[in-house]
Amino acid sequence: MIAEETLVQELKSKESQAKAFEVLVNTYKERLYWHIRRIVLDHDDADDVLQNTFIKVYRNIDGFKGDSKLYSWMYRIATNESLTFLKQKSKKMGIGDQELKERMVENLQADVYFEGDEIQLKLQKALATLPDKQKLVFTMKYFQEMKYEDISEVLETSVGALKASYHLATKKIEAYLRAD
User: Which value, in Å, is the radius of gyration of the alpha carbons in the chain?
Assistant: First the structure.
């Protein structure tokens, strides 16, 4: 695998940009897809958001200063694109955020790409009740097994605040699952 600094330099160079972007997409597309998919739930929506994410990365690579890892920067873009997509979707449908979340979980059962069982469906329903920040933190920590330091870079939040959010999310999910 190519070193991140080298990849960034090649992405910023007009001569090597196309090849470097291909490497970037091939390296990160699957991880970013699953990160996005856990937020938007729908396969087709995740594909759309992933495409928008890579377009933003391509257009804004010159603005990447290297203050964070390239991976964290792209995750931040993917997260923001996902949240923006959901806001636009709820607006287009003329419904609130919570109703959209509930519909998304209901649609999971009919999604041919969803391979989860009843327990995973219940967990998705529990996640749909969480505020966006808690859901993001829980998803990144639990499903993606990211370190708090990495999540901190992506969400631009302190590690202490993330630990508190994760703890609250866990308690709410446990309570939801017990009540169901």
Answer: 17
Query: Quick one: the chain helix, strand, coil %, rounded to 5?
Result: 80, 0, 20
Name the packing angle between helices 43-60 and 70-93 (round to 10°): 130
DSSP string, 39-79: HH--HHHHHHHHHHHHHHHHHHGGG--SSS-HHHHHHHHHH
- Residue 162 CA to residue 141 CA, distance in Å, equals 10
Query: Cα 110 to the chain's mean position, in Å?
Result: 22
pLDDT in tens, 105-123: 777 666 656 666 677 778 8
Orientation angle between helical segments 17-40 and 70-93, nearest 10 degrees:
50
Q: What is the largest CA-CA distance in the chain?
A: 59
Q: Would you say 106 and 113 are in contact if contact means Cβ atoms under 8 Å apart? A: no
What 3-state DSSP class applies to 174? helix
Q: The pTM is what?
A: 0.82
pLDDT of residue 57: 96
Q: How buried is residue 111: exposed, middle or buried, by Cβ count under 10 Å (0-12/13-18/19+)? A: middle
- 170's tokens: 């866990």
